[in-house]
Amino acid sequence: MDLTRAAAEALDAADPLAGFRSRVTGTDEDSPGRLLYLDGNSLGRLPRDTPAAIARVVEEQWGQGLVGSWSSWIGEATRVGDVLAEGVLGARPGEVLVGDSTTVNLYKLLVAGAAARPGRDVLVCTADDFPTDRYVVAGVAEARGMTVRELPADIDEGLDPAVLADALDDRVAVVVLSHVAYRSGALADLAAVTRQVHDAGALVLWDLSHAAGAVPAGLSAAGADLAVGCTYKYLNAGPGAPAFLYVRRDLQERLRSPIQGWFGQRDQFAMGPAYDPVPGIERFGAGTPPVLATAAVEVGARLVAEAGIDRLAAKGRALTDLAIGLADEWLAPHGVALASPRDAGRRGSHVTFAHPQAWQLTQALIDRAVVPDYREPDRVRLGPAPLYTRFVDVWDAMDRFRRVLDDGAHENYPADRARVT
C-alpha cells in the first residue's frame, strides 16, 4: 500500500462516493488545521436536508395541519421502516419498524423470542457485547427464571464460532449478538452464525447498531430472525433518534410484544377493553411514535441507500486499511498496537488501537482537532464514516496522532477518565 498523502489524494479523486461529502454539514473547511471528525460510529454528521425535512413537519404538518396530520403520521414508523429495510438492511417491506430506543426494542424482541421457545431456559450473549445488551439479557433472564450463558469473546477479534457452537444445545432459547463489535469493530458472519443458531433450534437476535449504514446486513438472505439497531451513527439521524427493530415476516404472528401499547393494537382507535395485537410488524409498536425525529431517520436512510451499502462498506474497509497501514509505520514504534481484526473482511467501518495511555492520547487528539473516542480498557477508536470521510482526512488524522506521540504531548494530560468522550 502506498502510504503517501499524494496516494490518499488520488484515492479521493477516484472515490465514487466523493459527492456525498457535500451533502452533510461541517465538511466545507479544508484548512490544514481543520476538524478531523473520526467519530461517525458514535454520532453521524448532520445531513443538509434534515433541517428542512423537520421544518416541513413542524411548520406545515403540525403548524397548519394540527391534529389532522395524524392521518399521514400514523404510518410513518412502517413507511420509514420500509426505507431502511430495502435500502440499508437487506430486508423485505413490512419487516422493519422505526421507534423507541435500541434498548427498549431489544427488550421487546428478546422477551417475545424467549416466549416463542417454550421449554428452553437459557439466553446466550457474549462478555464483550455492548453493555445495554448484556444488561437487558440479564434482566430478562432474572424476570423469567432463565439462565444466562455469557460467552468469552476476544475484545479485539470477536467471538470464535467454535465457542458459540459449544454453548448451543436444546436449552438455548435466544442468542443475542452484535454484528459489529462496538469496541474493536470485529465483524461477525451474520449468515453463518444464524445458520449455526438455527441448527440448535434457537432464535438469534442481532444488534446492528455499529453496522447499519456501514456494512451490509442481508437479513432476508441470511434468514435472520430478529434485529435491532440505532439510527444516529452511520445513518446520521441525530442524537436520540429513534431506533428500529426487524422481525422476519413468518415469525411476526408467532411473537407477542411484552409492551402492550395502543400503537400495537388492532383497530387502535376503537379504544377496546382488551389488548389484541394487530397483524404484522406494527404489533411491536408501543406508544405514540416520535414524528419529528422519524423525519430525520428518513433523510439519513435515503442518503445511505442512495450511496449504496456495498460501496459504503468497500470504502469503509479501505479507509480503515489506510489507518492500519499508517499506524504500523508511525504509531507502532511508540507502543501502539492494533486492537481490531487486521483482515478487512472481518472488520466493520471502525478501527481501534491499544496503548497504556489511550485516555491521554484521546484528549491530546481532541485538543488537536481530531475527534476519536476512548473505550475501556485502553483503546483509541477511530470511526471514519465512509459517507463523508476522505482518505486525506484519515491520513492527516494519523499524522497528528504521530506528532502527539513524537512530541510526548499526551504525557501532559492526567489519567482521569471521569469525562466521557
Protein model, in words:
It is a single chain. The protein has helices at 5-13, 50-62, 70-73, 76-89, 102-115, 131-144, 161-167, 190-199, 219-222, 291-307, 309-331, 358-367, 391-407; strands spanning 36-37, 96-98, 122-126, 147-151, 172-178, 203-207, 226-229, 244-247, 337-338, 351-354, 370-371, 373-375, 379-382. The protein has 421 residues and is of the alpha/beta class. It folds into 2 domains: 5-34 and 308-412, Aspartate Aminotransferase, domain 1, CATH 3.90.1150.10; 50-307, Aspartate Aminotransferase, domain 2 (3-Layer(aba) Sandwich). The strands form 3 sheets. Strands 2-8-7-6-5-3-4 form a 7-stranded mixed beta sheet, sandwiched between helices. Strands 9-10-13-12 form a 4-stranded antiparallel beta sheet. Strand 5, helix 8 and strand 6 (203-207) form a beta-alpha-beta unit. The longest helix has 23 residues, at 309-331. The radius of gyration is 22 Å and the shape is globular. The chain starts with a helix and ends in a 14-residue tail after the last helix. The model has no long low-confidence stretch (mean pLDDT 96).
Main features:
single chain; 421 residues; alpha/beta; Aspartate Aminotransferase, domain 1; Aspartate Aminotransferase, domain 2; 2 domains; 4-stranded antiparallel sheet; 13 helices; 13 strands; 37% helix; 12% strand; globular; PyrdxlP-dep_Trfase_small; PyrdxlP-dep_Trfase
